[in-house]
Amino acid sequence: TSVTYKYLGHSGDEFNAVRMMKRFLRGGKVWNTEIGEYSVENVCSFLCEVIDDPDNDILTKDHISEFVLKDSVLKKAGESAFIEFEENDYCNPFADQSSNPYKHKTLERILALHGYVSGH
């Protein structure tokens, strides 16, 4: 199929769904932009950016705190960090007040508990 919006592609480009999905999953170069692979690490980095965005109210530290309180492993890590001020794999109690204190491992666990990630 021809590209619907030719100004978004190169002249004569054909849409290829398989190529698009490979680029999405494995990463690669799109024109002059490098796209990272779809990985747990990249998803967690993106979620952290969303949480740290002051204009965002879709996913906030408060939302993550709700998940933390409902999981025994995360709750224990949170108590260790925020009550005893001991940094651990899940939380950084010394993060700036306006920053996200939850580490990637917290987000990975939340994703795994809800079936979005396996083997974590």
Which helices and strands, and how do they pair?
Layout: H1 17-26, E1 28-30, E2 33-35, H2 40-52, H3 61-70, H4 72-82, H5 104-113
Antiparallel strand pairs: 1-2
Helix pairs in contact: 2-5, 3-4
Report on this structure:
The protein is mostly helical. Helices cover 45% and strands 5% of the residues. It contains five helices and two strands; from the N terminus they run αββαααα. It has helices at 17-26, 40-52, 61-70, 72-82, 104-113, and strands at 28-30, 33-35. It has a two-stranded antiparallel sheet with strand order 1-2. Strand 1 and strand 2 form a beta hairpin. 15% of the residues are buried.
Can I get a quick summary?
The protein has 120 residues and is mostly helical. Helix content is 45%, strand content 5%. It is built from 5 helices and 2 strands; from the N terminus they run αββαααα.
For this entry, give a set of tags:
mainly alpha; elongated; 120 residues; 2 strands; two-stranded antiparallel ribbon
Q: List the helices and strands in order.
A: HEEHHHH
State the end-to-end distance: 39 Å
**Total helical elements:** 5
Strand proportion, as a percent range, falls in: 5-15%
Q: How much is the average pLDDT?
A: 86
Strand order, main sheet: write it out.
1-2
The largest β sheet comes out as:
2 strands, antiparallel
Number of strands: 2
Helix content: 40-55%
Structural class computed from helices and strand pairing:
mainly alpha
Shape: elongated
Low-confidence stretches: none
Rg measurement, Å = 19 Å
